[in-house]
Amino acid sequence: MDERSNVSPNMIKMWRVYRTVKEMCMDRGYEMLKEDTDISLDEFAARFAKEDGEPDRGRMHFSCQPTEAMLVKYTDSPTPKNPNPVPQIGTIWIEFNSDDAVGLKQLRDYMQHLVNGSFYSGIMVVQKPMTGMALRLLRGSASIEEGPKGGVEVFVEQDLLVNITKHELVPKHVLLSKEEKAQLLQRYRLKETQLPRIQVTDPVAKYLGLRRGQVVKIIRKSETAGRYASYRWAI
Amino acid sequence: MTPKSILKNSTVSTNEPSATSKPYTQRHRDVALQHASIIEEQKRVEKEVLDAIMTLMDFPTSPTADPMRPSPSDALFFQGLMVNFQPSDYDSLIEERNIADRCGYALCPRPKKKAPSKARKHFIETDKGVEIVDRRTLEVWCSDDCARRALYVKVQLSEEPAWMRRGGVNDKIELLVENAEDHHKALPLRLKQEAAPKPAKSEEEEDVASAWAARDDALADLALERGEKPGRLSKANKDLLRTHIQERVQTAPSVPPEPPTQLSGQSHMAIEGHIPRADRPKDEDEEDDGTDWDKHLPG
Ligand SMILES: [Zn+2]
């Protein structure tokens, strides 16, 4: 605890948030070095503290590229109509907003930044929940021309203090590729609508950035049955 | 209809279910369709309100516009967008403009007022003495004048969501302007003389008249709520807004205030319940104060 005594509580808090975001990017399949997710508090403070010892959110932003595996997962199988499908994923831009209140202005500026920088999607981390109108814009942002292709996700710092997927009671969630999903439905002769569901607003679904229509495999450990898997359709 | 037996009943004729259930399915379908159309309508209105707020965040169209004398086109546009708004949407508009550092009144190009410091609570001097107010309350408008003009619009908005309004929309949102003469040709501004009852009204006129009456009742209720006495000049009466606000100029050494006199004679000088000190003897019965508008602020 010695090393922490000279670091401000806000700095420790931001360090946790930052690490969770890095882990989240890695777990989604973006290129990320393990040591990046393991950054020490000292190093974090050295890189991101302002003169007064408070975290400088304005300098924490970063971008990530999808790994090969992620690109494959997000690419449709070729069809005669579309023999060379492009991956529905790309570079992501992560920004930590430092404003007291975040509304339409910041959200639209952020979207503009993503479009100008040709980013596929973005994550904005905010200190407090956005305004109702900004949330309304965000809900419709998939269909909004002014935003980036892959949409914008917003997280509140508070929700990232702890990485929920690291909790022992949270089973492992793995996103299926389109091909894997097709195989699953074929094997069990199911329609996707027959699968149990998971809301895209579910905390784990949010963590993985699930989109409507995707299927996750949930792997549980059971004392009686060993490991077993179930599948859920994101709505 | 008698309750259906849960036991197999071989005597039920095969065409009976279709005969009785058909009207039911039809009704269910109608209800479902009606629900779907309400939800559809709600989505449409919510999208329109969002778009309206995004447009009004960059309002007025000219950086030198005067909120007292808006351009007819800005005023007409603003009024038109307000038709769909509920008071809570209006709060959102103010909130979003404030986040963008603008005065909460959509026809004002000025930045919002800045509190003296970033502290959450501030001591401010009012006629009632020193009060503690939230910083956010101080940083909503550029001036009390804009607060009054903005809230004059808010009190006219319907609490009922636009997608539920059966009697059609209220398309008569009035603005407080001082260049009414520039507007009344272009705008549906209400002129006092027109309120006089005319004989043999058409049904449409009747509706319009009753809509105005309902609005007047609402404004009267509001006045009561604010502690105004019936029959007295309303604080939200646009007639008194033609008065000029007199700046306080020190011309003579200060003298002790005179004893209270009848305040009603001064009410034409009132600005949201305040009578500027320069023109007003000190009084004790200040029931309402200049901050009664902060009740209407978002969160
Ligand atoms: Zn103003």
TrEMBL record, chain A:
It is found in: Nucleus. It holds the Pfam family RNA_pol_Rpb5_C. PROSITE patterns: RNA_POL_H_23KD. Keywords: DNA-directed RNA polymerase, Nucleus, Transcription. It comes from the Eukaryota. The keyword Ubl conjugation does not apply. Residues 10-113 form the RNA polymerase Rpb5 N-terminal domain. Residues 162-233 form the RNA polymerase subunit H/Rpb5 C-terminal domain. Gene3D superfamilies: RNA polymerase, Rpb5, N-terminal domain, RPB5-like RNA polymerase subunit. One of its GO terms (molecular function) is DNA binding. One of its GO terms (cellular component) is RNA polymerase III complex. One of its GO terms (biological process) is transcription by RNA polymerase II. HAMAP family: RNApol_Rpo5_RPB5. Belongs to the archaeal Rpo5/eukaryotic RPB5 RNA polymerase subunit family. This is DNA-directed RNA polymerases I, II, and III subunit RPABC1.
TrEMBL record, chain B:
It catalyses: O-phospho-L-threonyl-[protein] + H2O = L-threonyl-[protein] + phosphate; O-phospho-L-seryl-[protein] + H2O = L-seryl-[protein] + phosphate. Pfam families: RPAP2_Rtr1. The keyword Zinc applies. Keywords: Hydrolase, Metal-binding, Nucleus, Protein phosphatase, Zinc, Zinc-finger. Residues 80-166 form the RTR1-type domain. GO terms for molecular function: RNA polymerase core enzyme binding; RNA polymerase II CTD heptapeptide repeat phosphatase activity; zinc ion binding. It is found in: Nucleus. Belongs to the RPAP2 family. Putative RNA polymerase II subunit B1 C-terminal domain (CTD) phosphatase involved in RNA polymerase II transcription regulation. This is RNA polymerase II subunit B1 CTD phosphatase RPAP2 homolog. The lineage of its organism: Eukaryota, Fungi, Dikarya, Ascomycota, Pezizomycotina.
